[in-house]
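Hi there,

I know you've been waiting on this one. I reran it after we fixed the sequence typo, so this is the corrected version. Both the input and the resulting structure follow.
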Amino acid sequence: MKYLFVLGRDKSLGILEVISFLKARRLTYKIVYSEKKFLILELDKFNFSVEEFGGIIKIGRETSLDKIVIDKNKITYSVYGDKVLNELKKKFKEEKVKAMFRKYSDEPNKNDLELINIEDSIFEMYSISNPKDYKNRDENRPKFDEKKVVSIRLAKILINLSQARYEVLDPFCGCGTILQEGLLKKLDVIGIDKDISDVRANLNWLREKFHTKNNFKVIKGDAGRLNFYLKKVEAIATEPYMGPYLKKLLQEKEAKKIIAELRVLYSNFFEAARDVVKGKLVFIEPIIKIYEGEVSMDFQSLVERSGFRSVKFEEVENPIIYDLKGSKIKRRIWVLERFK
């Protein structure tokens, strides 16, 4: 059966997230279409909602007009693709349905019916993301600072890229966004940070609010010594410490000083991670924007010296740039694996 995924702002990242999610569950798939913001896959089995993903806005399954059931006499609807629109209007008239048309948008909506027509296929959207749920979950936590936390969407993406099936570690866990999303995905989670009071408060709140059942463990310590605290972990997903919060663009000399300090931190982390992680390691490399361009480290050589390499994907390149408008730091997302 064919399924359609409406991708978010970062197309390549959305595709990589979907295929990583499927690989983790050992589901076979075939890409039959990948243009604009649409990804169409042939799948034998797919029973998951859009809430499993961070970079997907909507999911639809292939249908036909005669299979569409309208159980209201008054609806709102939208259609992408003109070929099906006239036929749909005819169906409404025959079934005496008062239908109000709304122009199609990639953004989430509350339409009663939404169809996307790609080539010869019609897809009915059955799962649509709700940004308000994320906002409420983000801002109602006991400990929240929007300047410091990784977004819920990005946290979900990182976890899916890790292909974790039962356990994920965030060695720079901060206030615990990746850990909380891991728990909501029914994974056991482990966090490491120098101050664990915020993450502990947030995870206890999450357990009470959402009745999460999986185990969590938070360790006060240094990511560079994680092999001292842990013997093995299935997967790692993290946005590491990326230097001080930047309110303005830096001069090149200042940026290079920060990058040099981060390189030492990351090198120690990867040396320790090599002894612990069994599967994928998903890591965000910071690139500091400056007035004359940008400053980065030779990240690939750093990880290779520690025994890691980037995972090869047929569908997209790895790593992937993730650049938020207005941010003074550009992010490069790597999916890594051990090779020695």
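Quick highlight: The longest strand covers residues 281-290.

Best,
R. S.
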